[in-house]
Amino acid sequence: MTGTQETPAPPSGPRFRLAYVPGATPAKWVRIWRERRPDVPLDLVQVTAAEVPDVLRRGDADAGLVRPPVDRTYFSAIPLYTEKTVVVAPKDHLVTAADEITLADLADEIVQHPLDDVLGWEQPPGQPAFERPATTTDAIELVAAGVGLLVVPMSLARLHHRRDLTYRTVTDAPESSVVLAWPEERTTDLVEDFIGIVRGRTVNSSRGRTQAEPEKKAAEKKRQPGKKAFVKPGRIRQDGKPQSKRSANKPAKNVKGGKPRKRS
Predict the structure, then answer these.
(1) What gap in Å lies between CA 39 and CA 36, rounded to an integer?
(2) Buried/exposed 54-67: b ≥16 CB within 10 Å, e otherwise
(3) Is 80 exposed, middle or buried (0-12, 13-18, 19+ CB in 10 A)?
C-alpha cells in the first residue's frame, strides 16, 4: 500500500440546483425538500439579479428564486411573496425619528441608486448622487460613510445589516416580490416536486410528485392479494334476498317440484 489516499468520487445520481438572488430566503423550502427527498441532494447557487437569467438558460441551475421582471416567453414563474420597502440610514439621521416615512420625506435627501437596483423606479426618490454605485453593497458603504440614504427591499436591508445603520418603512414606495422561475421547456419531475413544496402541498397531496408516492406503490406491490373464495350462488327467496348455502340446499316450502318425502 502507498501512503496516498484517493479522494472519494462525488455521489452519482440526480441533484436539484436552486439559484437564489441576494435577499431571497430559501431556507424553509430547502428544509422541507431535505425531509421529503433525502435521496436527492439540493445545491444552493447564489447569483446576482443580473446573472440569474443566464444561469437558468445555461442549465447551471434547475430553478431560481428571483425578482421580477421575468421573461415569460422563456420562463415559467410562480409568485411567492412580496416584501416591504425601507430606507436605510445612519442611526442618528432625522428620518429615524418616525417609524414610517413617505417618499416626500426624502425629497431633499441624497438617495443612492445602485446599478443593481431591484425596485424598478420610474423616477428614483430624493436627490441623485454624483455617481451611481455599482452594487447595493457599495451603496451601503456610502450610507455608512454619511453619503446619502438608500431605498431597498427589507430583505436587502437585513442582509447588509450594520450596527451603525438602521431602516424605516417607506409606505408609498414600490414593493419588491420574489418568484420561483424555471425554463418552461425543462419542467422536470424534480422541478414539479419543488413547486409542490413552495405551494404548500402536503406529502400526500394528489397534485405534484412526492417521495411518498413511489414508497406507497412499492408497499402495495409487496402485498400479494390472496385468492378470492368462490361462493356458489344460492337460490333467491321470494322476498328477493339470497338464501344461505344451507337453506339453498333445502326444498322450498309449498313449491312444486320439490323432492317428495318417503312414506313409512
Answers:
(1) 9
(2) ebbeeeebbbbbbb
(3) middle
pLDDT confidence band for 6 (50 / 70 / 90): low
Rg, the chain, Cα only: 34
Per-residue model confidence as pLDDT tens digits over 208-226:
554 444 444 444 555 555 5
Burial of 81-114, coded b for 16+ CB within 10 Å and e otherwise, reads eebbbbbbbbeebebbeeeebebebbeebebbbb
d(CA 70, CA 238): 74
Give CA–CA dist 113/54, Å, rounded: 24
Residue 101, pLDDT above cutoff 60: yes
**Between 27-36 and 189-198, two packed helices, what is the crossing angle to 10 degrees?**
120
Q: What mean pLDDT is predicted for residues 50-79? A: 95
User: How many angstroms separate the CA atoms of 137 and 264, rounded?
Assistant: 116
Distance CA 113, CA 174 (A): 14
Instruction: Supply the DSSP symbol for 130.
Output: S
Question: Are β-strands 42-46 and 100-101 bridged in parallel, bridged antiparallel, or unpaired?
Answer: unpaired
Q: What is the pTM of this model?
A: 0.70
pLDDT tens readout for residues 110-159: 999 999 999 988 899 999 999 999 999 999 999 999 999 999 999 999 99
In degrees, to the nearest 5, what angle opens at C-alpha 150 toward C-alphas 148 and 152?
A: 180
| pLDDT at position 181 over 80 | yes
